[in-house]
Amino acid sequence: MKKAVVLSVIAGFVASAMSVSASANDAEGAFLGAGFGGNNYSELGDVGTADKSSTPAAHVFGGYTFNEYIGAEAGYNWLGNGRVDGERFKAHGANISLLPRYPLTEDLSLLGELGAMRWDATNEGTDVSDFGVSPIFGIGLAYRVSDPVDLQVRYRHIDGVGDAKTGESDSESLGLDVVYYPTRSSTPAPVVTPAPEPAPAPAPQPVEETKNFTLTSDVLFDFNKSTLKPAGVTALSQLYNQIQTLEMDDKNIVVYGYTDRIGSDGYNLKLSQDRAKTVSDFLTTKGLSATRITAVGRGEADPVSPASCNAIKAKKDLIVCLAPDRRVNIEVKGTKKVTVK
Fold first, then answer.
1. Where are the strands (E) in 145-226, listed by range?
2. Which of 67, 92, 162, 243 could form a disulfide with 24 if both were Cys (CB 3.0 to 4.6 A apart)?
3. Last residue of some domain: 165, 180, 195?
4. What is the CATH number of the domain that holds 168?
5. What was the pLDDT predicted at 9?
């Protein structure tokens, strides 16, 4: 009965996570971790006289969190030494698992696990060893201590460790994990300070207003490319949210693409146009009207890099120095009613 309940909870958790993962955009990247706790060979009494069924256990693991709702991991697990009829019963193995998760607060998430373990078990009483594969079900909580570090409490059920040769027992473990995310960051997006509210007036008049945003192309695109990187998708999603909060009517947007001076004029003009088009297409898919957004390529015009770049000969160093020239400027124009005094 316990196995059926755990399986139904995890299956429902996986379905819920998969249904929302398409809209999630908080990819957190690769992780490494280690954990320590206790394991109980819950059916060791069926093998013989269980002198010791509870034992320390540990595991190490690594994986990838695709977004805040789903991830995957692989790991090595030491399930510890039990004792049957006065002799050791021990097991260890490698697992691969799907890790659904559901945020409860900004820092606390509910965890699930659904996977399989390839175990090796030894019963020293019968001097027999064997191996096999068994399903894993798990549930727990993860707390975000800092950007790179989580603490996790996890319960895991391995359905059958050992076989007819060695004797078989389920494994029930509870442990504390430390998880390290080397690339995870929660740096807040830049926020546009809203214009002050106009003083009340009997006859407010529409006045044109302009807001400008600049994004470095090295965040949005790989060098010499016009396809968005994952970091570019995140940055443009944040920009879209800022544009939506602007208190303007009849917004019209012009996206200007710029390159550095490396390469021919014609190539750079086309690359800047392609990049501007990629940004405008993305903002359109997010909900901005295609009739109110224009993409303009400016090539290597209006450089902003320092004059010291002119003395650099090595191409790799020059690319770094000219990074400020590779940018996308977004100009937003609209009308806002203000009091005319």
1. 149-161, 169-180, 204-216
2. 67
3. 180
4. 2.40.160.20
5. 44
Edge-to-edge strand order for the sheet containing 249-258? 204-216, 327-339, 249-258, 293-297
Non-local (6+) Cβ contacts of 237 within 8 A are: 25, 286
Co-location of 210 and 174 in the same domain: no
Q: Confirm whether pTM is higher than 0.70.
A: no
Per-residue tokens: 111: 């965890």
Q: How far apart are CA 281 and CA 190, in angstroms?
A: 22
Residue 281 lies in a domain: yes
Q: What is the pLDDT of residues 181-195, one digit of tens each?
A: 998 877 765 777 788
Please list, in sequence order, all residues whose beta carbon lies within 8 angstroms of the beta carbon of residue 298, skipping any fewer than 6 positions away: 256, 257, 258, 269, 272
Residues 49 and 111 in one domain: yes
Q: Give the model confidence (pLDDT) of 164-179 as tens digits.
A: 777 788 889 999 999 9
Of 317, 322, 319, 327, the residue nearest 307 (C-alpha): 322
Spatial separation of the C-alpha atoms in residues 75 and 179, rounded to whole Å: 13
Which pair of structure tokens corresponds to residue 28? 């957190």
Torsion of CA 99, 103, 107, 109, to 10 degrees: -40
Both 288 and 145 in a single domain? no
User: What does the mean pLDDT of the chain come to?
Assistant: 84
Q: Which residue is it, tokens 């609209």? A: 334
pLDDT at 83: 85
Q: Distance (Å, rounded) from C-alpha 92 to C-alpha 122?
A: 9
Residues 164 and 230 in one domain: no
Number of domains in the chain: 2
Domain residues for the domain of 322 are 204-339
Note the pLDDT of residue 149. Answer: 93
The two tokens of residue 230 are: 């994952």
Q: What is the pLDDT of residue 18?
A: 43
- Residue stretches of the chain with pLDDT short of 70: 1-27, 188-189, 199-203, 337-341
pLDDT of residue 340: 56
Residue 196 in any domain: the answer is no
